[in-house]
Amino acid sequence: MKIVLIxxxxxxxxxxTAMLKVQEIFATKFPEVEVTMLDLAEYDLVxxxxxxxxxxxxxxxxxxxxxxxxxxxxxxxxxxxxxxPATLKNIFDLLPVNAFRGKxxxxxxTAGTSKHYLMVEQQLKxxxxxxxxxxxxxxxxxxxxxxxxxxxxxxxxxFRLDRLVDDTVTYVETHAAIREKKDKLYDF
Length: 188
What we know:
- The protein has one domain (about 1-185): Rossmann fold (3-Layer(aba) Sandwich).
- Helix content is about 40%, strand content about 20%.
- It contains five helices and eight strands, in the order E-H-E-H-E-H-E-H-E-E-E-E-H.
- Helix 4 (about 120-130) links the parallel strand 4 and strand 5 (about 135).
């Protein structure tokens, strides 16, 4: 099983802090799972210009091909101006419209205030549905008050991150079993 974690911003620390915790939980609970962290702040990505993802070069090619090879993706995103950051939107634009077909996608969202919790429902989930993702219905939403000095200090957030990792693995395994069962129906 291949899981890709995306820290979807090039600024700030809360989203990366949350995604590092997700990575730690995967390593502790599911060491057999191949987990790759893509912190978008560490890559030099070009803006989408309409080419197929495999036609790009360098970091852009690596990031898109890594996402396309995954069985599951955990997207970490901050909320900027009530929306997802442009760096994350660019990732969606670089990928084909069916990029998440057959993939399970989970979400971790950070925001300055609880007033932005609907961003996931009104913006991110519709994009993921359009790209054919099997989304884990629950997501983790963390506010500024849940962090202190690059640490998560809210036990409820830690519990929910742990549960999100469990749910992600369960959904990937379940969808793999469903796909295998459907494949057996065909005689080729």
